[in-house]
Amino acid sequence: MNILFLGDLVGEISFFYIKKNLKNIVKKYNISFVIVNGENIANGYGITPKLCDDLFSLGINVISSGNHIWDQKEIIPYIAKNNKLLKPHNLVNDSAGYGHGIFLTESNDKILVINLMCNLFMRKSKKLFESIDDLLSKYKLKQNCDAIIIDLHGETASEKQAFANYIDGRATAVIGTHTHVPTSDLRILPKGTAYQTDAGMCGDYDSVIGGEKEAWIKQFTGDMNKNTINSCTKNVTLCGVIIKICNKTGLSNKVKQFIIGDTIENKIPNEKNFL
What we know:
Blueprint lengths: L1 E5 L5 H17 L2 E7 L11 H9 L4 E3 L10 H7 L18 E5 L5 E8 L10 H9 L10 E7 L3 H10 L6 E5 L9 E2 L5 E3 L16 H9 L15 E9 L6 E10 L14
Parallel strand pairs: 1-2, 2-3, 5-6, 6-7, 7-9
Antiparallel strand pairs: 1-10, 4-5, 8-9, 10-11
């Protein structure tokens, strides 16, 4: 079984690129399940119900999120009714919505997707390590689920790496999101959990983390008169990973970085790795 995970979608330009390319990617790599982090697709600020529906219509199975989940207030009643849009499980004082769920592939494999947020330099959240221990006491690979994929939304590499090693062997993959920059540390840890500090973003890399360069520069130099920084819309690159899962253990057999588009170096895996 192969799973495609795409990093933070920044701006609606990412939707149109996915719309154009996802079907071919799924076919080429024999993908059974698609997860995207969609928290920046609405011009860099959250996600709307319409954009959720548009993404699901393309065949995306689950949309994860992070600290921007509540930027668009209209998402609150939507997330309360739709368990395929996830908020970070360990957010404090947030009642609406779901932070994890089990979802079926077309072959009836059970995929547990968990959305978590780190504690360092992020929106106030419950303790990360206690939160995952609580969840993994209830869900076990090859007992009540066939794969466990964790979107770990956070700022620091140290916290993400410590977390991944802490649960190595108890989850299929821990893929970091939030920084919008793809890291070069993708690997399978000693006990079988695939890990990457950050998958990167799906958006325009001729930018500052997907936003207008001049607006970001003005913000850092003190010349910014407004809070909104619009997403760049000229070029787009998809960044993510493809994970091949062992049917016997639910752990990762193989994981490859997937980068396709403009501006940064492409990394296109050989499809023979995922037959």
